[in-house]
Amino acid sequence: MTERDASILQDSMAEAVARAYALSQDDEKIEPIVRVDRFGRPVGRIRSGDYVIFYDIRGEREIELTEAFTNPDFRHFPTRPDMDTHWATMIQYDPKLDVRVAFPPPGKIEDTLSEVVSAAGMRQVKISESEKATHVTFFFNGKRKEPFPAEEWVTVPSPHVVLDLSTSPSLSF
User: Fold this and answer.
1) Within a domain: residue 164?
2) Are residues 96 and 60 in the same domain?
3) What confidence tens digit (pLDDT) does each residue in 80-115 have?
């Protein structure tokens, strides 16, 4: 552990996040932060028997993270097989997850714009960058995983450039 890492770990979480922002890390790419006590032991780690409320509503990374704790057959990265946790999510990330859902989906969403256009026999194309593709396709189509007839989905890789807006002459924060 570097001196910088040690100082981040002993800060409050707000200070640690502010320091990460100062290092040009944004919300999507922030390095993991662990709060520790004065002896360097992690504070607030999820343990077996814990009840967890997952309230992030993006639904992409949350599926993998929730699965890591709730699916004994999870194999994407190493997990503790003896972990027995109880999860609740604000929305349904995936119906296959073994969790309680605070606000379950209302049911099948019908007559979306894409469905109506398709039913009228018209062609349509949805073009999006990869980071927003799920929103432009899956969510826009009422959580449908496949395109409607005569609908095409085109995904362009998102650029992975971090802009430093603080140096822009037209913007000030």
Assistant:
1) no
2) yes
3) 878 889 999 988 888 899 999 998 887 888 999 999
